[in-house]
Design a protein that fits this description.
Layout (H helix, E strand, L loop, with lengths): L1 E8 L3 H14 L3 E5 L2 E6 L2 E7 L3 E8 L2 H18 L11 E2 L10 E13 L2 E7 L13 E6 L11 E2 L5 E2 L8 E11 L4 E7 L6 H8 L5 E8 L8 E7 L3 H10 L5 E8 L13 E8 L10 H7 L10 E8 H14 L6 E8 L5 H13 L2
Parallel strand pairs: 15-16, 15-18, 16-17, 18-19
Antiparallel strand pairs: 1-5, 1-6, 2-3, 3-4, 4-5, 7-8, 7-14, 8-13, 9-12, 9-14, 10-11, 12-13
Helix pairs in contact: 1-2, 5-6
The structure holds flavin-adenine dinucleotide (FAD).
């Protein structure tokens, strides 16, 4: 067990403790009373928050550094949030995991090679340390931290001595973009990501276009939800979802059956996929039309047979926002709740950069 403590002096500690506990419950923590103190359980970590007239006395125990950091950050950020206006609490942790550190789920990756898979798909190979947590077929995607071009030494987000996440100054701050781990060999400390090279390149596409051996980016995660077992599989994706589809197809049982539809510009963007023999792969060509501007995936989905009585289905779809929205709406009329499972995701949104796309997704989720 790792252990750390802090004493946080506050004008009115009780006024901070109450909303802090209420909020942590919303974040799925379990809060109980014990000997006049609050006991908090958050994933594998435990915290004890004792109250005096002038301070909160906090002790945290956790089996690993990730859980320790998560609990410290949850407590410190809520103390700062609920301290009265004008009061800036001073927080210094003592014990294990103190001192500025990279977040436990963060790795620095160094480019080792760049391959052109198709004219608009670039595979970048990286070397990194302690990659085991990223080697999971049920959590395929990562957040990449891409430093501004031309910056000498990259600057990364760090957990400070107060347990809070501190971002580098704006001029050095990396851009955050989501990508899919296409290949990983954790024992060898290597992985590969496939980047779409698109017009109106943002930080992700521009990095892929200029990357060379020795360049560094950050990576945090992994995230996502895993492939579910079903009697029939349906995958729908544009080229941004292609790395995930390709990787999932490689892991399916060799007797799996189903259909895959992938939208790309033309035959030159098709890739050899290692799909089970019972999975039919159809490439949809949009030609010179802009990515995300044609309803090719929607039409493929609409044409699928979906008998009321039939094998259970797993539907996985990832695409531009418009296709995502249409497929999600159409799926509501097809999916049989008692038999079928699905994951339908917007991977990018035409005309807006990832920051606005993510903000819009959060706002939509907030509306329920
Ligand atoms: C979970 C997840 C996993 C993903 N995995 C991958 C992956 O493995 N490989 C991959 O290439 N992408 C992947 N994406 C999509 C990728 O994150 C977005 O395409 C992202 O917007 C690219 O960032 P950027 O900096 O290049 O462009 P941004 O700065 O985000 O956008 C700049 C402009 O480019 C446009 N744009 C963004 N993406 C595209 C595109 N594909 N085609 C045409 N125009 C585009 C935007 O609409 C905007 O106008 C994934 C997304 C998610 C959510």
């Amino acid at each position: 067990m790792l252990a750390t403590t802090t004493r946080i002096v506050l004008a009115d500690p009780e006024a901070v403790l109450k909303p802090l506990c209420a909020h942590l419950v919303e974040h799925e923590a379990v809060v109980t009373d014990e000997d006049g103190a609050k006991m908090i359980r958050l994933d594998a970590a435990r915290a004890r928050l004792g109250l005096s007239a002038t301070a909160l006395d906090v002790s945290v125990e956790a089996p690993d550094i990730a859980a320790l950091q998560a609990m410290k950050r949850a407590i410190a950020s809520h103390v700062v949030e609920f301290a009265p206006k004008g009061e800036v609490p001073s927080i210094r942790w003592h014990g294990d995991g103190t001192g500025p550190a990279l977040p436990a789920d963060f790795r620095v990756l160094t480019v080792t090679g760049v391959e052109t898979i198709t004219p608009h798909m670039r595979r970048i190979r990286f070397r990194g340390e302690s990659l085991a947590r990223f080697d999971r077929i049920e959590a395929l995607h990562v957040r990449l931290f891409i430093p501004p071009p031309g910056l000498g030494e990259p600057a990364w987000p760090m957990i400070g001595e107060d347990g809070l996440l501190a971002l580098p100054p704006p001029e050095a701050r990396p851009s955050i973009r989501k990508y899919t781990i296409r290949e990983i060999d954790a024992a060898a400390g290597t992985l590969a990501l496939d980047f779409v090279l698109h017009d109106d390149a943002g930080p992700g596409s521009a990095f892929a276009a200029r990357a060379k051996a020795g360049d560094r980016i950050g990576m945090a995660g992994p995230g996502g939800r895993g492939l579910k077992i079903a009697e029939r599989y349906i995958f729908l994706a544009d080229e941004t979802g292609l790395p995930a589809v390709a990787r999932m197809l490689e892991t399916l049982p060799r007797d799996a059956v189903g259909q895959v539809f992938i939208e790309v510009a033309d035959a030159g963007e098709e890739q050899a996929l290692s799909a089970p023999a019972g999975i039919a792969v159809t490439w949809l060509h949009r030609g010179a039309a802009a990515p995300g501007s044609l309803p090719l995936l929607q039409e493929a989905f609409a044409a699928l047979d979906w008998p009321a009585e039939g094998p259970s289905v797993y539907l996985w779809a990832a695409s531009e926002h418009g296709a995502f929205r249409d497929i999600r709406a159409a799926a509501r009329g097809k999916l049989r709740p008692e038999r079928d499972q699905h994951l339908i995701v917007s991977y990018w949104r035409s005309g807006v950069a990832e920051e606005q796309h993510t903000a819009a997704k959060k706002a939509e989720a907030g509306k329920g």
